[in-house]
Amino acid sequence: MQISSVNDVKIYNLSHGKSLPEWLSDRKKRALQNKDVDIQRRIELIQDFEMPTVCTSIKVSRDGQFILAAGTYKPRIRCYDTYQLSLKFERCLDSDVVAFDILSDDYSKLVFLHCNRYVEFHSQHGHYYKTRIPKFGRDFAYHYPSCDLYFVGASSEIFRLNLEQGRFLNSLQTDAVEHNVCDINPVHQLLASGTAEGKVECWDPRVRSRVGMLDCALSSVTEGTDALKFNGSLTMAVGTSTGQVLIYDLRSSRPLLVKDHYYGLPIKSVNFQDHLDLVLTADSKIIKIWNKDTGKVFSSIEPQTNINDVCIYPGSGMLFTANEDPKMNTFYIPALGPAPRWCSFLDNLTEELEESPESTVYDDYKFVTRKDLENLGLSHLVGSSLLRAYMHGFFMDIRLYHKVKTMANPFAYEEYRKDKIRQKIEESRAQRVQIKKLPKVNKELALKLMEEGDDEAELSARKKKGKALPSILSDERFQVMFENPDYQVEEQSEEFRLLNPIVSKVGQKRRKKLRLLAKQAEANQEEEEPEGRGSSDESSDDDKSWVDEVREQRRLIYEEGRDRRRQERKQKQGQQPRFFQIKAGEEFRSFGDVARKQKLQKASLEERLKLEERSGTVNVADTAVGSKQLTFTLKKVSHDDTIT
């Protein structure tokens, strides 16, 4: 069982939890119940309350004893006896069920509309009769006074099948292209059908003529009406294909209220709860419960799987849902009404749970960020089943978190215990006579705030109507900043060094202004600028001074970073050996020779010629004609080569 609270309304999901296989032995079932918390919280209200694959629709008989559900695969109908809390019978069908209805007070008379245009009748013993309608049907309604079945579907006609005569009667010709849904008012037997164009046509079965039409598209952005339900003699709710629900009074063409689900999905079901004047509307994602008159949300239910149909057990706070899942959900909301008579023990159970509150869903999990995972050394678990991604982090099992936390820092509990003891001692000391002293953390900041507080207190005392502002030191919201070492200001950081000149100059200006206002308050004169230089000159000088300080700090930070990088480069060079490449045809003498050759390659032509001339390798001389004569001296050749 899962407990959730939406808008302070407790909702109990009685179908939540794991299902145990039938082939397990009793011994293994007991062992699983002792180990698994989900199985311990599981409540199997009705035995085998599920379908093989999907449940499409669900209804309760008028006497409240039987619950019938249609599903697939294979297509079938299941009947559950609430007095026995078990499955009564199961019948397989030839095709999927589009809609079905219970004509009697119990399960003895059933009508099924199939997807292949067949209408099948079942009696208490089983299949009774089958017939076919001209067009594919989508919904039908039974008119008790005349024993007529009205079928709507992919046609402009509303087909009539009389069960007393056993034959089709003249159909009702409408102006619509197709119909999606229909319903009959239980008070005055008015027939209403919702069309694919977003209109509702109302017919009187006595005269077989249309008596009115509502255009729902004028009041909402819709393409068609997918749900229709009467409440009393004058109220009608219309659910559209775009997720709006319109409440109408049959005497007016304008809706009394328009409620939007904000999902843009077709409305699947509309039900009324007369005791509290509530409306239960459902699309495939959510069930919303809201007030019929004001539209105020009472609560909401959001199952894990898509919803196909919703059924309320009469006179209680229990409702059933048919889902795109084998399990059919059972929800119990005590605020809507008491538990049914066949499961009255739920009231006692919920009262006990309210007295002893259980842990919520997230109590067994710990939310961690990527930085926390890196600190714990669990970054390799990202993408595995041990971490569940959520927003900017992950959910992990609280037991795994505590285990890894203990291994990463085994003395964390001792440190936490010492901090708590220290806090208790300091709280007891606070009751004694207080002596004004500096805190242990951020002493410079506290001293600065104390000086500024004294100046402000002195100024406010001299003013007649002045009131001193509360100090940061005495404010409880900033108390942790002077107690927790994690909030210590790092004065050597780049951010502080660049920001400190600006803050200090602002503080100096503030103190000057306070002193000036104090003098003016004493003299009780009008505000005048002091003699000498104007205030604009002083402010310009102050701005120039803190700009110079910021530039100086930037230069120092740059030099420190450059020296640090140079030191790191030297350390890397000292740790890693240097390699030199010897080209083909060269003879290695020493590392100095290689360095000298690299230096010559980078030098200019003039520098290379001067160096070779000094070494005696090249001789440059001027002639009378003005030309240049170069003489090369080769070491391995004895004669001279002259180039003119």
TrEMBL record:
List keywords of the entry alphabetically. Answer: Nucleus, Repeat, WD repeat
Per UniProt, subcellular location reads as: Nucleus, Nucleolus
- Gene Ontology terms: cellular component: 90S preribosome; small-subunit processome
Q: Where is the signal peptide?
A: none
Q: Where is the Nucleolar protein 10-like N-terminal domain?
A: 1-356
Q: Which residues form the Nucleolar protein 10-like second domain?
A: 361-409
Superkingdom, according to UniProt?
Eukaryota
A Pfam family this chain is assigned to: Beta-prop_NOL10_N
Q: Compositional bias of type Basic and acidic residues: which residue ranges? A: 531-566
**Which PANTHER family does the annotation name?**
NUCLEOLAR PROTEIN 10
Name used for this protein in its record: Nucleolar protein 10
Please report the organism this UniProt entry assigns to the protein.
Oncorhynchus tshawytscha
- Originating gene: NOL10
